[in-house]
Amino acid sequence: MHNFKSSLGRGRSFWHIIVQLITVFLVAFLVAILWINLNRNLQQLGIQFGFDFLKQQASFDIGETPIAYKPSDTYSRALWVGLINSLRVAIAGMFLATIVGIFAGIARLSDNWLVRNISVVYVEVFRNTPLLLQLLFWYSAVFLSLPNTENKISFFNIVYLSQNGVQFPWFKLSSEFFALLMGLTCYTGAFIAEIVRGGIQSVPKGQWEAARSLGLKPSLVMRLVIFPQALRVIVPPLTSQYLNLTKNSSLAIAVGYPDIYFVASTTFNQTGRAVEVMFLIMFTYLTLSLTISVVMNFFNRMVMIKER
Amino acid sequence: MNWLRKNLFNTWYNSLLTVVCLALLFWVARSVLNWAITQAQWEVIGVNLRLFFVGRFPPTLYWRVWIALALASALLALTWGVFFSKQRVSSLRIIFFSLIGCSILFFLPLDLNTRLWLQGIVILIFAAFWFGGRLSSAIASWLSLAWLLSFSLVFWLIGGGFGLRSVPTNLWNGLLLTLLMAGVSIVLSFPIGVLLALGRTSNLPVIRWLCILYIEIIRGLPLIGILFFAQVMFPLFLPGEVRLDRVLRAITGLVLFSAAYMAENVRGGLQAIPRGQIEAAKALGLNASLVVLLIVLPQALRIAIPAIVGQFIGLFKDTSLLSLVGLLELTGIARSILAQPQFLGQYAQVYLFIGLIYWLFCYSMSLAARRLEKQLVHEK
C-alpha cells in the first residue's frame, strides 16, 4: 500500500516537473525569438541598446517645472521633472478625490431626497463616461472658453480664474494641471463614493441604534461609531482606486501636462529609443504602484479590528 | 405636501440643505439652458452625424453595418431573454413596447432609410427577446456557438472579403470602431484570461509564478503605456517582413491589457467555489483536467459574469484612449472634427454629444450587470 502511494506520488511529480520544464522552454523560446528580432531590427535602425542617452542634452522645453530645468539640461533631468509633476498631480488627486468621494458617499445615504439624488446623478454621470473625454472637456470646453488673463474672473478678489489657470493668493496652478486634477478628482471621486456608501451600509443597523441610544448626536454617531467600522470595508478597494488614479494620471498627455509619461514619450520621439523608454515607463509605474500598495497595506493594518 | 415635509424639510439643517441645493440647481440649470439655447451652435452634430457613428465607411455599404448591428442586437436580446426566462414577460407587453419604440423612432429627425432600418432592428430585438424567453431550454446550449458564429459574421460584414467588397481598416471609424474594438478585445482576452487564472491558481510553482508576473506587471502599468508599447514596439519584435496594421496592433495591446484583468475576475470566481465541489468531483473518479473543465470552470465563470460585464464597461470607456495613438474611434473622430476650421472652438457641444453616447452604453450595461447579479444570487 505504502509502495503504491509513493509510486503514484512520484509519477505525478515527475509529470509536474515535465510540464513545468516544457513551459519554461516555450517561454524562453518565445523570448529568444522576440529578442533576436528586436536586435536585428534595432541594428537596421542603427540604434544600440543602452541608457547612455540619458546624459545627452534634452533640448526640449517643459511647460511646468517644479525643480529648475532648462532645455540644455539632460534627459534624465527632464524625466525627473516629469516624475515630480506626476507625483504632484497624483497626490493632490488622491487627497481631493477622497474628500469628494466621502462627501458624495455620505450624501447618497442622506435622508434628504434632493441631496441623495444629486449624489446619484453625480456618481452615475462621472462613472459612466470615459476619463479621457472628461479631461478633454475640462481642458478644452471649460478652461479654453474662460476669458484671457486681462479679464480674469475673480471670486471675492481671492481666487482668479483665467485661460492661464487658477491664481490663489499664495500660489498659482496652470490650466493644464487644474484640468487634469479636476478630471481625476471627479472621476475617481465617483468611484470612491460608491465604495464609501458600500462601506457605511455594511455596518450593522444595531450599531446606529446603539450609538443613538447612548445619546450621541447624528454627526458624532457617524464620526465616532460608524465611520471607523466602515473604514475596514472601505480601505482595500480604496487602495485600488488610488492605484487607478495614479495610472490614469498618465492621460495628462491629452491636455498637455508634462507628467512622466508625456516627458518619456517626447524623449522617445527625439531619440527613437523605444525599448529603453518603455523600460523607464514600466519601472516608474511599477515602483509607484508598489509604493502605494505598501503604504495602503500599512494603513489597512491600522484600521483592522484589533483583537484584545 | 406630506412627502415634501418628510423628505426635504424634516429638520432645520435639512431644510437649509434643501434651500441651498435648490438655489444651486436653479443657477446651474439656468446657465446651462442659457448656453444651450442662445450661445451653442448645434449644427456641428447634425452635419457630422454619420462621421460620429460610422466615420468614413463607404456609404454604399451601409447596409452591411446595419445587418451587423441587427445581428448583434438580436443575439444580445435573445441571450437576455434566455437569462431571464424564469420571469415571464407577457407577449402583450413586448408588443406594446416595440410599438412605442417604433413610433418614437418614426419622429426622429433622420432620413427615411435610417428610420426604417432602426425600426426593423427594434422589432427584431423584441422578437428575439420573446423567442429567448419562450424557447430558452432549446436555445440555451446553442448560445455560445451562435455568439462565436455571429462574431465572425460581423467581422466578415464589416471587413469584407470572401465575395464582399473589402473595406480597409482605416475606414472603420467612429462608434463602429469603438464597439468593434471593445467587443474583439473582450472576446479574445477571455480564453487568455481563463488560462492565466487557472495558471495563477495551479499548484505548479513555475507556471504560477509566470502567470503572477504577467498579471501583476500588466496591472501595474497604465493602458496608454501598453498601447504605446503595442504601436511602437511590436514592429520591433516582429521579423521585418511582417507588417501589422494600426488597428490590429491596437487590438493586440487591448487584449494583452484586458487579459490580465480578466484573469483576476475569473480567479475571483474560482476562489468562490467550495472545496467540496472539487473533492466530490475527484471522488467520482474524474481526473484533474476534467474536474476543472466540467465542474470548476462552468461554476466559476457563472459567478464571474457580473464582474466581466463590469470589465467590459471599463474596456468600452478605455477604447477612448485609442484616439491618443492615432485611431479614429468615437473620441478620435470627435477630435478630428474639432480640428476642422469651420467647427473650431465648438468643444463643448461635440464632447457633450459623444459623452451622451458613451453614457447611454455604459449606463445600460451597468444596469444590466446589476440585474444579472440579482438573478444569479436569486438562482442560488
Give the overall pLDDT of chain A as a whole number.
Answer: 87
Uncertain runs of chain A with pLDDT below 50, 5 residues or more? 1-9
| Structure summary, number of beta strands of chain B | 0
DSSP helical segment count of chain A: 10
Structural class given helices, strands, pairing of chain B?
mainly alpha
Find the CATH topology of the largest domain in chain A. MetI-like fold
Radius of gyration of chain A: 26 Å
What is the beta-strand fraction of chain B?
Answer: under 5%
Q: Roughly how much helix do the residues of chain B carry, as a percent range?
A: over 70%
Shape of chain B: globular
Q: What is the CATH class designation of the largest domain in chain A?
A: Mainly Alpha
What is the CATH architecture descriptor of the largest domain in chain B?
Orthogonal Bundle
The CATH architecture term of the largest domain in chain A is Orthogonal Bundle
CATH superfamily of the largest domain in chain B, please?
A: MetI-like
Task: Please report the two chains with the greatest interface, counting residues with C-beta closer than 8 angstroms to the partner's C-beta.
Answer: A-B, 55 and 54 residues
Number of domains of chain A: 2
The fraction of residues assigned to DSSP E strands of chain A is under 5%
User: Mind telling me the C-alpha Rg of chain B?
Assistant: 24 Å
Principal-axes shape call of chain A: flat
Distance between the termini of chain A: 49 Å
Q: Overall pLDDT of chain B, averaged?
A: 87
